[in-house]
Write a structure and sequence with these properties.
heterodimer; A: 418 residues; alpha+beta; 6-stranded antiparallel beta sheet; 16 helices; 32% helix; elongated; B: 181 residues; alpha/beta; 5-stranded mixed beta sheet; 3-stranded mixed beta sheet
Chain lengths: 418, 181
């Protein structure tokens, strides 16, 4: 609530005056530090920063009022940042005057920001601007949360304060998107992932709703396989289609990559790019939607024809790649990097990974899919294996005689409802 | 391959240098331990020419060979000078049906290096032999292999063909041994 009020007041100021009257905002992390070093937080200390940003001008400051004091030693690692009120004498007693030489007693910088940044020994300052500053919503704030916006209290407060302005009808959009895909598209088949890769000839269908970790067949095969997960992230060529070695792949031709922070990046693989060519539009789930593995996760559109693609894992959509929404061709041109589609906050990634291909399994699956694609051209192309050359781009564009519905059903295992 | 008919026929389509055919037959005999014979040349497969692409459709040639009768040979490797393709590929160096009867080798793109220069004849012969062995591997039901040095690895470019060895990896060797037993 405290942060919401702060952010709201900031927002209201901005709306009224078109200036940012920036209350000293203290992040949750900083707050805990401050309370431990006996610094009283008196809010709001209202500052106004005027352009140019380096020339920080203090328009008004409030006195800090001490409410209660606890006596604890100030740890040398617990540092004070600019624009945060603190007890000058106590801090100086511990750190020496150098540490606060450029700060006034209320924590306000007395020199240009850039100079200040250089002159505060040991004080950690991020090198770049807060996303809200970049977006022009606020005039000045440097990121102090390592761009971990997802967990940043300031970001949460800003989102809360901005409310409908940044995401109008958000809940409605979530519900409407799910309703839309569920009404129009459906999963056409639920094949066993080992059948799709050609590893086994039966069972053809998955009877366990892709709970591979509970599947006896999967367990049996798993024991036989020593899966090697490479640390390299270079491309590998499988029958002419590129795969990235340390990604995981869903049989519906999506890839996932587990990011360093544990979130899951999702995209479409090179095979789908080659087959469908450059999409005219991409229908991505809005942030906040919960997707289940195997449900329709996004829809690629090519000349008014739709290719619904299954979500490779379960999780809540936490980010969407705006670049591909504005330029869908990026997915085709760089499917594994710039062309990522959305990020998921995973629900149960350990179990979901059991239903994805990696390493040798991925190689076998892509080989089989290449043959499935050949077969769509006619019986004369069944079981053909080529060496040399590469698949042509935009296969559906070059072969309009291949039925779109059959292609989508065969290769992506989904279909449109009619 | 049936036990009593383990012979491979090497068939030139049109005017193919005899040295190439001999090298291919010799490599088949040495590497796969099956007898390979050079057969009488057949005419160029004009029926498979795609006039839009000025390339020959490998699938049509393979289908034609599958309808032909070769009494003493279980598998056929046909060699031609023309550029081959299958519809969804830009071109192919070779093509075969998995577990089928006939594989094709095109010399068209083997006579140039990636930088456009002409390689020595020994390199061209080596490339032709590798492609022929690779296609024969498919005819013996071997799949593409993930090991980059294995003969059954998919080679997109001519440089990858050069990197490929004449040998099979451990797994492909075992599989081939089982097939030829």
């Amino acid at each position: 609530m405290f942060y919401q009020i702060l952010a709201l007041s900031l927002h209201i100021n901005y709306q009224k005056t078109n200036e940012v009257r920036f209350p000293t905002e203290v992040s949750r992390r900083e707050l805990s530090q401050l309370s431990e070093i006996e610094v009283q937080i008196s809010v709001p200390t209202t500052l106004r920063f005027t352009a140019p940003l380096k020339e920080v001008t203090i328009m008004k400051t409030n006195e800090h009022k001490s409410k209660k004091e606890k006596k604890k030693d100030i740890g040398s690692k617990r540092l004070i940042g600019i624009d945060q009120p603190f007890d000058y004498k106590k801090v100086v007693a511990v750190t020496g005057p150098e540490y606060v030489q450029n700060l006034q007693h209320d924590g306000v910088a007395s020199v240009f920001y850039e100079k200040l940044k250089k002159n505060i020994p040991g004080y950690y300052l991020s090198e770049d601007k807060c996303v809200w500053m970049r977006a022009g919503v606020i005039n000045f704030r440097m990121c102090d949360y390592d761009y971990d916006c997802y967990n940043c209290p300031f970001d949460r407060a800003m989102i809360s304060a901005m409310g409908e302005k940044i995401a109008p009808n958000k809940e409605e959009r979530k519900a409407s998107w799910l309703r839309h895909v569920n009404e129009k598209y459906k999963v056409a088949a639920k094949p066993c992932i080992h059948f799709v890769s050609g590893r086994i000839s039966s069972p053809e269908e998955c009877s366990g709703n892709y709970k591979c970790n509970h599947c006896a067949v999967h367990e049996l095969l798993d024991k036989e396989t020593h899966t090697e997960i490479s640390v390299k992230s270079g491309y590998k060529n499988v029958s002419g289609y590129r795969i990235v070695e340390n990604y995981f792949y869903h049989f519906g031709h999506s890839w996932i990559h587990i990011e360093d922070d544990g979130r899951i990046k999702v995209g479409a693989d090179d095979f789908s790019s080659k087959v469908l060519g450059a999409a005219n539009a991409i229908n991505l789930p809005p942030e906040g939607v919960f997707l289940r593995q195997g449900e329709i996760g996004y829809v690629l559109t090519r000349d008014d024809k739709k290719a619904p693609i299954q979500s490779p894992v379960s999780g809540t959509v936490c980010a969407v790649n705006d670049k591909v929404l504005n330029q869908p061709a990026v997915v085709h041109d760089d499917p594994y990097h710039d062309g990522w589609l959305f990020m998921l906050d995973p629900a149960n990634i350990k179990f979901d990974l059991e239903g994805l291909y990696s390493g040798k399994e991925c190689f076998q699956w892509m080989e089989k899919e290449s043959q499935n694609l050949h077969e769509l051209l006619g019986p004369g192309y069944k079981q053909l294996a080529a060496t040399g050359g590469e698949p042509i781009d935009d296969i559906v564009g070059h072969f309009p005689e291949i039925s779109w519905d059959r292609l989508v059903k065969t290769l992506f295992r989904t279909t449109e409802k009619y | 391959m049936t036990p009593n008919k383990k012979q491979v026929g090497v068939v030139p389509l049109g005017d193919v240098p005899g040295t190439v055919l001999k090298v291919i037959a010799e490599h088949i005999t040495r590497c796969f331990k099956v007898t390979a014979q050079i057969l009488s040349p057949l005419e160029q497969p004009e029926y498979a020419l795609d006039e839009r692409r000025f390339q020959y459709n490998a699938a049509i040639i393979i289908e034609m060979f599958e309808s032909m009768h070769f009494s003493d040979h279980d598998k056929i490797i046909a060699v031609l000078n023309h550029d081959l393709f299958i519809p969804i590929f830009t071109h192919v160096f070779g093509e075969a049906r998995q577990g089928g009867k006939c594989g094709l080798v095109s010399l068209f793109r083997l006579t140039k290096n990636p930088d456009g220069s002409a390689p020595p004849e020994s390199i061209v012969l080596e490339r032709a032999a590798k492609i022929a062995l690779h296609e024969l591997g498919h005819l013996l039901d071997l799949l593409h292999c993930e090991h980059e040095k294995c003969l059954m690895h998919f080679s997109g470019g001519i440089d990858e063909v050069d990197e490929m060895s004449f040998g099979l990896c451990e797994y492909c060797s075992i599989y081939l041994h089982e097939k030829l037993r």
